[in-house]
Amino acid sequence: MSPIRADSLVLYKTRPARVLVVGEKIEIELEGSQTKKVRAKDIQLLHPGPLRSLSELTSREGDLQTAWELLQGTDSRLQELAELMFDAFSPVTAWCAWQRVAEGLYFSGTPEAIAVRTPEAVSRDLTAQAAKEAAERDRGEFLERLGRAALEESDRDRLREVEALALGRADRSRILQALGHEESRENAHRLLVASGYWAPNHNPYPGRLGVSLEDPRLPLPELPTAGRRDLTHLEAFAIDDEGNRDPDDAISLDGDRIWVHVADVAALAGPDSDLDREARARGANLYLPECTVNMLPEALTEALGLGLQAPSPALSVGLRLNADAEPVDVEIVPSWLRVQRISYEEAEGRLDEEPFRSLYRLTRTFRERRYSRNAARIELPEVSVRLVGGEVRLRPLPRLQSLDLVTDAMLMAGEAVARYCLEREIPIPFATQPAPERLESPADLAAMYAYRKQFRPTRLSVEAEPHFGLGIPCYTRATSPLRRYSDLLVHQQLRAHLGGGVLLSRAEVSERVGGAETAGGNLRRAERLSNQHWKLVYLRDHPGWRGMGTVVEKDGQKATLLIAELALEAKVRLRSDPVLNDLVKLVPRELDLPALTCYFRARD
Fold first, then answer.
1. Using an 8 Å Cβ cutoff, are 141 and 157 in contact?
2. Strand 75-76 and strand 26-29: pairing?
3. Considering only CA atoms, which of 126, 54, 46, 43 is closest in space to residue 81?
């Protein structure tokens, strides 16, 4: 090996260098005229020189193929390889030959010991390299189609990784990385819409929260017909929203006795049946603007929904109100009914008729008793959000006396069932809510908004404690077994008691409620986020929208406003210090559907 001297060509790491001075340490010049002192072991000699400038190292092709073929089956050195490729050994040819070695395709090793790779190894690498280049071309063409929103069918498979990120099932996306985008659910959503993979209005929240969008498909057992009381002589009214498809409660009046009839779901969905396990896993019905997804098969609703069959099977709760408006003389029986289905609007127009007049009087008495126990009177704006023919329709929900009638009748039945079970030591999930830190009687929208923030969510427990917000000392949810699993669980316990069967223990009830509540929590969140999504779609599709907001909270010049016609909160900076309950004219300023945000500004 020749000694390293000034103007030698050496290899420093992977780049060429020219030796300037040889001493205790060797000073070298790197590309860009940078100099550096290194140890002898840090460099490898490629050519003894003289090399006057690194700029002399121009690129040359040489006869690589011939050199490789001649050297098959042998080892070589850099000088021999350079001479075979270029018929000369100079700093320039040495550097060009070394670059071919460094590539690792035909040769490998060090300047003093170059290994010649076999034809099989080279062929294998060339094939892999060609495949890699083809994949890179294909990827480039895919990204180009993505930018033009001109997807081919095979592209949809590739975009599943982006969809997984958009739905929260993955944290990374190579496609977003390749495009230089931050890997976030919002950016994934934007890309999927921009590319045409998702429709512009696609609602990602049910998928993101892992809730099913399909009704369960399970066979139904035969309905037991024996042991039912015939109540078909009573007028029974199922009062609900227009177009409701799962009527699970109805009301009758028999003298001074109120009957609340409930779909007898536990007659078919007994504890630990396939139907029970399915309902428990889902927790409740899912109500989205675009669809309703049932926790139980649709065929079960058709069989048990009140008024959908004549007669209808029910579990009926009969009660009277004592002088203190408390439910007494409670009776619970399986029954047969003839049910008339009417809307809240129709019932509103019949409140001067019997039995609606008397029913309203009795339920109002019950409501006044609840208010005397500090039941919360919070009436914040509500809207119905529906997707009809691809169009978002918003309908403010009016405050109807008929709705109050039905609400209080159901609460009355819930208290009656809770008392009935407590007296007989039947374990059920009681609905409870603690009192807020301070009691108020809010009289305006801002006060109601502030008061609501004090309340904690309703909790289900096997311990019977008061529900403060409802003003009821002992309460359970028992009137929606088609829609909510905890109600079905109450019915299963009632049926076991009435039939002399084995009751579930308190621990079993608590465990089942816990699982259903977890699933139900995801449903409620999916509903809330979906409603917000479709409200923003409505605003996007109505660019001329102008509206009013009520100031319900303030922080300096920043204010939280409630937009009644949208039932939507907005944080807005105002020009002057806002006054609670003032009305402010609003116009949308910026809307970001994937981020689920809409910013408003005050207008003159």
1. no
2. unpaired
3. 46
Measured CA to CA, the distance from residue 432 to residue 461 in angstroms comes to 7
Cα–Cα distance, 185 to 187 (Å, whole number)? 6
For residues 431 and 390, the answer to whether their CB atoms sit within 8 Å is no
Residue 249: which H helix or E strand, with range? strand 249-254
CA 193 to CA 170: how far, in whole Å?
18
DSSP state of 389: T
In this structure, are residues 422 and 474 in contact, taking their beta carbons and an 8 Å threshold?
Answer: yes
pTM over 0.90: no
Q: Which residues contact 364 (CB under 8 A, 6 or more apart)?
A: 404, 408
Over the chain (604 residues), what is each successive 10-residue block's mean pLDDT? 87 94 93 92 93 93 93 93 94 95 94 94 93 89 89 92 96 92 96 94 96 95 93 97 89 97 98 97 96 95 94 97 97 97 96 97 97 94 95 94 97 98 98 93 94 94 96 98 97 97 97 92 96 98 96 92 96 90 95 96 88
Determine the Cα–Cα distance for residues 136 and 129; give it in Å rounded to an integer. Answer: 10
Decide: 68 and 106 in contact? Cβ < 8 Å.
Answer: yes
What is the pairing mode between strands 583-592 and 597-602?
A: antiparallel
Cα–Cα dist 18/11, whole Å: 9
CA distances from 11 to 99, 214, 232, 273, 410 (A): 11, 66, 100, 77, 87
HSE-up of residue 515 (Cα within 13 Å, Cβ side): 13
> Sheet holding 312-321: strands in order across?
229-230, 327-337, 312-321, 257-263, 249-254, 236-240, 339-343
> Taking the domains of the chain in order of start, what are their residue ranges?
9-120, 121-198, 229-533, 543-602
Q: What distance lies between CA 328 and its chain's CA centroid?
A: 44
Question: What residue type is assigned to position 228 of the chain?
Answer: R
- Could you tell me whether strands 339-343 and 236-240 are parallel, antiparallel, or unpaired per DSSP bridges? parallel
Q: Which residues in 467-536 belong to E strands, given as ranges?
A: none
> Are 375 and 469 contacting, i.e. CB atoms less than 8 angstroms apart?
yes
**543-602 maps to CATH 3.30.70.3040:** no
Alpha carbon distance 484, 439 (integer Å):
30
Closest CA to 16 of 104, 7, 64: 7
507 SS3 class = helix
Q: Which two tokens stand for residue 69?
A: 């073929």
Cis-peptide, bond into residue 543, ω within 30° of zero: no
Question: Which of the listed CATH numbers 1.10.10.10, 3.40.50.2000, 3.40.50.1360, 3.40.630.10 matches domain 121-198?
Answer: 1.10.10.10
Report the amino acid identity of residue 36: K
